[in-house]
Every structure is written in structure tokens, then in C-alpha cells.
Amino acid sequence: MTTLPRFRLRSAAGIFCGTVVASALAGVLWGLLAPPEHLLVVSPDRGVSLTGESVHRFDAIGMFACAGLVVGILTAVAAWTARKSRGPVALGAVLAGSVVGACVMALGGIGVAALRFPDPDTSTAGAVVAVAPGIGTPLVLIFQPLVACVVTLVLAALNPYDDLGVGDAPVELDEQEQRDATITS
């Protein structure tokens, strides 16, 4: 039975937490930068998008996807630099952190955007109101974990070492070396 060293588990926990924190910060930044959509109130609780303003819905989604891509790339590369923790445990931590982080980024970003653009008063016809941006579709949450896995795969494929440079694999001794080791000890 093989057990994982404690430092690998601690490193995996650090990778997970760091990914979630980086995602939360990116979500706050997205909430501050994402543009609102302006609507013209035509009747109580009913509005129409102004010409050119419906594009901001796509802008917000695109900015969120790009933020997820950047966070996914940076966290995968940062996790890869922890040489002693490379391997399936670190990949699992990056993947789990990216999945949870993308959800945290969406919730945090939408929360900040809602604080920036509170619910408008849509009872006055003819008024132009700003509506807080959203992520549009939950499919946008896939970008961060997907790019984190792809970057880790590319880094592992480009690594020249069979053990990914970890260097803690047990050394197999042949029979003669084992006899020599027991004689000298």
C-alpha cells in the first residue's frame, strides 16, 4: 500500500486554496469592469435594449471567459512550479480548485456587479436604466478548469524527466546491490 507524503497533501491543499482565492479576486475584478446593459423602460417592469447596448451582454460573458482562462493558465503554471508536488495529486488539486474557483468567481463577480448596479426602478416609462451584467450561461464556467488541465498536460508532455522532475521515486536495487547494502550495514 502506498501512502502520500504529508507535504504533497499540504501542497495540494495550498494549490486548491490558492486557485480559489485567485478566482475570487478575478471575479471581483470582473464585477468592477464588466459593462452594464442599458434598457429603455417602455412599461412598468418591461424594458427594451437600446441600439448597441445588447452587445454589452456578450462583452460581459467574454470578459468572464477571458478572466477564467487567465486564472486557469496562471494557477496551472504556479502549481507546476512546486516541483515536489507534481503528479496526479497536484493535477486533482488544480482541477478541483478551478471548478470551485470558477463558481466562486461567478458568484463574487455577480455580487460585485449587483452592488455597482442595484435593481433599477422600472416603474417610470421612458427612463433609461442600467442593468447589472451576468455570466449569461453556466457553460462559461468550463473555461477555467479546461485550460488548467490542458496547460498541465502540455507542461507534463514537455517535461524531459520520466518522474516529472520530482526525484523522490524509490530506487530499485538488483540482487547484488541488495547483498552489498546488507553487508555494509
What does this structure look like?
Keywords: Membrane, Transmembrane, Transmembrane helix. InterPro entries: DUF2567. The chain crosses the membrane at residues 12-33, 60-82, 89-115, 135-158. There is one protein chain. This protein is mainly alpha-helical. The protein has one domain. 59% of the residues lie in helices and 8% in strands. It contains 5 helices and 3 strands; from the N terminus they run αββααβαα. The protein has helices spanning 6-33, 55-81, 88-116, 143-158, 175-184; strands spanning 37-43, 46-49, 128-131. The chain has a 3-stranded antiparallel beta sheet with strand order 2-1-3. Strand 1 and strand 2 (46-49) form a beta hairpin. Helix 2 packs parallel to helix 4 (143-158). The longest helix is centred in the middle third of the chain and has 29 residues, at 88-116. The mean pLDDT is 84.
